[in-house]
C-alpha cells in the first residue's frame, strides 16, 4: 500500500535499505532518542529437542 501511495508503514529498516523509491527515517521520542522495540522468541518445549532448533535458540 505504501508503494502505491496509500498510507504509511512501520517496518524494520533492514527491509528497505535497498529501496530508493521509499522515504525512510528513524522514529524518535520526545527526547530525540530513537525508538527501539524488543523482540521475543516463543517456542514449544518439544521444539528444543530438535538439534537445529536448540542451536538456534541458544544462539539467540
Automatic annotation (TrEMBL):
It comes from the Bacteria. This is LysR substrate-binding domain-containing protein. It comes from Bacillus paralicheniformis. The lineage of its organism: Bacteria, Bacillati, Bacillota, Bacilli, Bacillales.
Amino acid at each position: 500500500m505504501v508503494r502505491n501511495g496509500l498510507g504509511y508503514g512501520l517496518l524494520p529498516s533492514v527491509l528497505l535499505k535497498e529501496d530508493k523509491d521509499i522515504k525512510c527515517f528513524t522514529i524518535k521520542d520526545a527526547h530525540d532518542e530513537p525508538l527501539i522495540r524488543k523482540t521475543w522468541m516463543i517456542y514449544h518445549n518439544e521444539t528444543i529437542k530438535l538439534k537445529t532448533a536448540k542451536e538456534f535458540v541458544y544462539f539467540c
